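Known limitations

Files may contain more than one protein. Parsers should not assume a single record per file. Below, a two-record file is shown to illustrate correct handling: read the sequence, read the token line, then continue until end of file.
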Amino acid sequence: MPNPSRRARKPLPPLKPRRAPNLVLRRRLLMSGLSLAFVVLTSGVFYRQVIQTEFLQREGEARYLRDAVIPARRGMITDRNGEPLAVSTPVETVWAEPRKLIDHLDKIPAIAQALGMDAAFLRDRIESNRDKGFLYVKRRVTFEEARAVREAIARHKITGLDFESEYRRFYPGAEVFAHVIGFTNIEDRGQEGIELAYDRVLKAEPGLQRVIRDGRKRTVQQVEQVSPPHPGRDLALTLDRRLQYLAYRELKAAVTEHKAKGGSLVVLDAATGEVLAMVNQPSFNPNSDRSGGSERRRNRTVTDVMEPGSTLKPFVVAAALEKQVISPASRFSTAPYSIGRNVVRDVHNYGTLDVTGIITKSSNVGSVKIAQKMSYGDLWSLYDRLGFGHPTGVGFPGESRGLLRHHSTWRPFEHATHSFGYGLSVTPLQLAQAYLVLASDGVKRPVTLFKRDPLMQAAAAPEAVRILSQDTTRRLRAMMETVVSEQGTAKQAIIAGYRAAGKTGTAKKSAGKAGYSSNRYQSVFAGFVPARQPRFVMVVMIDEPGAGAYYGGVVAAPIFQKVMEGALRLFNVPPDDPEPSMMLAQHLQGTAP
């Protein structure tokens, strides 16, 4: 029998390995972390999808939805017949995103060459604004420049450079209309002339639209219009483009011929007071060359003053006729005439002249003796009512009011000098307005540059007022016809087929405390045509002619003849009576119908 001690022993179960405590801990932490991350992620998704939905949509839109400006056209300026004098044309502006373009500095020379700019200057601008998202590179570029920039962008694969649309002001009349129209700056705001005076009427209000842009800032879709653009209002001037060109050509030729410092010319419609032409020399081109300062840019017709000289003598006669202290038949000796320590004399000894002869020969002595038959206040009152010393109200920026001192400050010799155009100063436009009274049978009308009032809220223009009687002005016009004759001082102003009337003026320029210059003059002619029923009034002034001749009848009168001859043809004004000499004699005798 088997030995119990040798009974087979049961094998012991294998021992299970004991887990390390740190491994268990790691697993628990991992599970906890995953659970927490799941909770956080789920919470974040819920928060963003449910709670922050509107906020995130706004933020997303802000990254591709933009407000873009809709350019608007500035108002157009035209002449009386609708011919454009100032227009706005669409152009492109090049802009950059410096923070992107900074990575393409090696391409700057190509961009600068396309735009005609200095490469070093453009590089400095980009580097100094490297953190900005917008920078104008060049505004209102030409078509050729825009094409060259696009080619450079495509060829060199440049990013951070783009275009936007703007309007550029263009002046078809260039230097011919420059002083009246003026010009605008880079922001399309008026700087001179009508552009400045009526900027609030002409300026446009840009609109606003919401657009979608891609990552390169390119517009890919227009979403909605926020506000519509409002173009500026158009203005129609009284100027006639054809007459303006003619006047400018003749004035420029005369200034060149006589080697003058400058000149001014203005033509008015005798029936309405509308300015038909207004030109100056020297001039400038508002489309390109705006240099030269005020010497070239100012409108001398309304800003510069002159002593009118003998062109005032008809008004002295008119005042005396109105006061009935003289008659057309009154006669005066024109020998040298002493007033205190001063002596008044004429260029030639004309002997004894009647009133018409004083006008015809432009006698200083005769004019002084007529003035002395009136009080200081009588002469001053007429000058004041004619508008001397007051702005014309034409609405032009920088208009001068001239100078007319009150008669209470006059001394005897100043009373005398005021009778032949010294001691006071006027603008060419003021003198033209005064001659408009003579052409309008004694009625003073406001001068204007507009066919209608462009500002609906502006006060109505002042009514026409009577300054002189009809009989006086008609007699005076007949006397002034003799000036534009073979016997007068302005025979070079004669217009074939028409009876013209006017008055020459030659005034020495002031030399300050030294008195008057002996070799610096202003040559003036003022007149109207046809004489019996005037259609046009003109004043022309040549400043400091330097080629020898300086008398108004020699320097200024020929310009009057050429411009008026063209004006009569352009406006189809029929010729005067075929026998002007007979009608002139009847007017001088007071028997004309």
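...continuing to the second record:
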Amino acid sequence: MVGGAGAFGARLVAGLAATTDLPVIVAGRDLARAEAVARTVPEGRGRAVRLDAARVGASELRAIGAGIVVDAAGPFQGGAPVLARAAIEAGLPYLDLADGRDFVAAFPALDAAARAKGVVALTGASSTPALSNAALDALTEGWRAVETVRVAIVPGNRAPRGLSVMRAILSYAGQPVRVLRAGAWQSRPGWGLLSRITVPGLGRRFASLCETPDLDILPARFPALRTALFRAGLELPALHLGLSLASLPVRWRLLPSLVPFARPFLAMAGGLDRFGSDRGGMSVEALGRDAAGRPTRAVWSLVAEAGDGPYVPTLPTLAAIRRLTDPSAAPIPPGARPCTGVLPLAAIEAEMARLAIRTRRDTDHPAPLFERALGAGFAGMPEAVRALHGSVGDGAFRGRAEVLRGRGAAVALVAGLFRLPPAMADGPIRVTMEPDPEAGEECWTRSFPGRRFSSRMRLAGPGGRGRVREWFGPFAMDLAVSAHPAGLDMAVTGWRLGPLPLPRALRPTTQASERVDAQGRFRFDVALFLPFVGLLVHYRGWLIRNDAREEETP
């Protein structure tokens, strides 16, 4: 095992020593550290060798008597699969704990060589993509469609951090990360998309966009997927938000990367080790439609206690080694590929038995926002209207629209403040909905040529029957919604700034309707008026579901 003396490698050695009788070769550039770890393997089954994974050849692997080659060294970001090539040439099975998106994406280039040698070579036998995909497969077995997947890893603050882990995080902090959101490939800054997530049994923590192989693998495995997000979080808000601030010079292109600052960051984080806890967690959330076609939300979550969180990335590799060395197990087909669809979740969870790690699954069938607001009336609307409002996973629609704008300085000021679209006779429009069943709200984004504006919707007040509150930044409008066989109507009944109601006499008024045209398309017609000013904006047009993934234009 190369990197067997590192933060994860040493834990993988401990797992092999505790649960198997296999001999273990601990390899690395620092022979003294490798020897110290090798001595922890009982009954003389451990030995150490000096080996540089960046320069190793097939002859060296044969010479040390390796049976399975494991790369736990890292960081894998920007690295080349030198050790994997050597293992394949030597005819030896290969596994690694790679979480580098570029490394895993390029790995199948070794597939032809691995097949020719009859060798199994698996990359990413770690938390991502092996464990995340195994959990997702278990959650969504038999589903008709998987529409949204959100994965998060939030370690405890007292979890040990190695220099390679710090370099891996800093390699993407502030850098552009390509991510699929609401049916469009977007570029978002690494450690951006800040949110608060809940891991059952652990509570709420900050989490931000993390560049991992799942961002490519999930969209490739699930054709109907509209959103694939992977976030990571630091337990202490000061550290998490501090890294967000530190990444700004990279976002603004004032610095090429934060990697050169890895040692100072590691020292700073180490100085705060006494704060926080040794409790970490992971969650995999799937939104879509189950075998019966019902809107469904399913969550697999993990909580690690007593500092056992750093063992989690090693467990898929441990399960894979167990399968490769078990004569009674079904053989893994030869070839070089990511470690997905190879290990069932139960096999990985079985490796947790000796550790303070527990998992759980939660499944529910949350009603979409407008179904909750409209009650029985929702089912009476036309199918095209229900389709637009009826998903708990992210959705995307495209069509054409006409936009009229009022005149005057007041109209220009308000339109600029809320980024309302400019006037156009006929142009393309794209509308996306990103429901958050946990928060009970939906984020709507309307994209016009050169302009997009977003809002958040949730039920207005307790119960919220017949009323929806739509937030535009700090301002909100209360909307009365009514359903009928022809479609849906909405009207403003009040407005507020934050929690404070604003004078009803000054509230905007609206004429908003949703219908179906002769071609069966969803039609919208929304006009917004300001007191004493008149028309603010009036946009109308049609939409159809957009099943094709797009490249978002800046």
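Parsers that stop after the first record will miss the second one. For reference, the second record is described as follows. The chain has 17 helices and 27 strands.
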